[in-house]
Amino acid sequence: MSTEAGLRINKYLSERGLCSRREADSWVAGGRVRVNGVVATLGTRVGTTDEVAVDGAVVGDPTRHVYIALHKPVGIECTTDQRVAHNVVDFVAHRERVFPVGRLDKDSEGLILLTNDGEIVNLLLRREHRHEKEYIVTVDRPVTDAFVAGMSKGVQILDTITGPCEVERINKNVFRIVLTQGLNRQIRRMCDVFDYTVRRLVRVRFVNIRLDGLEPGRWRNLTRDELVGLVPQMFADKPAAGEDTSP
Q1: Of 13, 42, 103, 150, whose CB count within 10 A is highest?
Q2: What Rg do the C-alpha atoms of the chain give, in angstroms?
Q3: How confident is the model at residue 3 (pLDDT cuts 50, 70, 90)?
Q4: DSSP letters of 31-59?
Q5: What are the backbone dihedrals phi and psi of residue 155, each rounded to the nearest 5 degrees, phi first?
Q6: Are 93 and 183 part of one and the same domain?
Q7: How far apart are CA 115 and CA 121, in angstroms?
Q8: How many Cβ atoms from other residues are within 10 Å of residue 216's Cβ?
Q9: For 45-86, how does the pLDDT look when each residue is reduced to its tens digit (9 = 90+)?
Q10: Of all helices (H) and strands (E), which one includes residue 226?
Q11: Are residues 223 and 187 in the same domain?
Q12: What is the pLDDT of residue 126?
């Protein structure tokens, strides 16, 4: 084990398809990772001859990368912690170990991407890229012009003001919203400010990936064209991998 040569431990774990770098940091901080039998620290680097283990299981060679879109039902938790009931990993039951790109609240439904490629997660979650996420939201009372205008301009929540966003009334109690932020329970908190309660929240798009035609509880592999549109710097010259449909 070295603190000067090799890959940082979080990059090493993400490249082997175990988790994102952010999640790897939490594993290391929690004492779950050992290198050559020694508990790793956030500064640990791993060389080619080092043995890395997570929760006592030795980490193997990198697996093939998979990229899937899931229509997450209400009640499924976007966590890789399999001690949590109804976690998304057990729900998908993929043959590869996959983890979600970001989060979608347990009480919400719709599109969530999962992968075993930690590098794409790091790119997609960077705030400066301002990736669009589109939602269809049903609330408990009529959507007014004042509500649409207020939501669009920005709302004071969580000690910050949300950025301007696109909001459109669809019908009496339903609106569409496009965010480029990812604050905790952001839409629900924004609605609360205007005394609206969310009855249903569905994510229908993440950047160029759409939920269209994917039934609740089903997943599919992303196409090569979708991957190129999602992260062109990674996939412009690479084919997509994986099966065609979920079981």
Answers
A1: 13
A2: 20
A3: very low
A4: T-EEETTEE--TT-EE-TT--EEETTEEP
A5: -130, 140
A6: no
A7: 8
A8: 14
A9: 998 888 999 988 888 776 688 999 999 999 999 998 888 999
A10: helix 224-230
A11: no
A12: 76
